[in-house]
Amino acid sequence: MVQVASKFILLALAFGPAAYLLWEIVRRSPDVVRLDEVLGSLGLGFVASIPITVGEIWLQNRINPMLAHVSIPVLAGSLRALAGAAVPEEIGKFLVMLLLLRSERVMQRPYAAVILGVAVSLGFAMLENLIYIGISDNWARTAALRAVSAMPGHAFYGAFMGCFAAMTLLEPERRTRHLALMLLAPILAHWIYDAPVMAMDEVYRAGGSVWSVWGLWIGFAGMLLLQVYAAIRGMQQVLYRSIAVERSAQADPLSPGTA
Asked: Of 53, 37, 39, nearest to 92 (Cα)?
């Protein structure tokens, strides 16, 4: 009975934060997306994260021996965060989002891409939660930390990707540029989040000073706040553009692209 209860607690801690964030998104955007669309995107993200995670583990096993020869701990941690986490994970989300962009509803309401981008990203985060909480010696502490850091972080990566996905529909003449930023912006945001954490891990292993670790923490907090601001601004801009396009289509139903 205790083991069964522990498994339910683990699942609740792994999935609970994502479920709450998505519920808030759907509740505040009833006219943009339906619940089944959000849940479908969440499921796609979760399923896609399985092969990506396997590939990520394989990649890290190849990268770590090479990084062992890097004499600067902060650089080693930063490279591990980029090549072993940010790049493979965001490529996986990018491929899922390309599939969702073919949805007729997303084409009609580009802002839906932002919300579905968040859902896909949280699907990835759910599998991460299962793994990290499941292997942690202090699962309660790990769950609490990830609920207030990693889960919102993944939501912001998804928001970045969704914003540029929406822009591919709002500005089709600049589609190539927006597609590139749709991948590169989340990779950069993900790397900014992971790099200080992994760099601190490398500093501790190398016996680095407490002051250097505190410096990394301050940098981490600053970058995280910058991400929050940028994501919110990006979502606002896309929402305004999307509303303007819808109003224009309603005012001129015979204009190109509104059939």
From this structure: 53
